[in-house]
Amino acid sequence: MLQLRPGCECCDKELPPDSTEARICTFECTFCADCATNKLRGICPNCGGELVARPRRPAAKLATSPASTERVLKPAGCGAA
C-alpha cells in the first residue's frame, strides 16, 4: 500500500492524500508537481526513476488505511537531476 507521504522532499510543500500535485517514483520518493517538473525534469534525484502522478486514495478508505505522517526532507533542497 502506498504511504502517501505528506510533503515534497525538495520544498516541503504540503501534499495531502487527495492532492493532484503529488509526484512519486517507484520507491515512493515524493515531490510536488512544480519541483518534479521544473527542478527535477521528471527524474527522481534519489534513484533516477521516473516521477509520475501519485494515485489518490478514496476518502472512505483513508479512515482504515490512513496516509503517512512521516516527512522526508532534503535540508539543502533538490538540485537538478
TrEMBL record:
InterPro entries: DUF1272
Top-level division of the source organism's lineage: Bacteria
Region (Disordered): 59-81
Official protein name in the record: DUF1272 domain-containing protein
Species classification: Bacteria, Pseudomonadati, Pseudomonadota, Betaproteobacteria, Burkholderiales
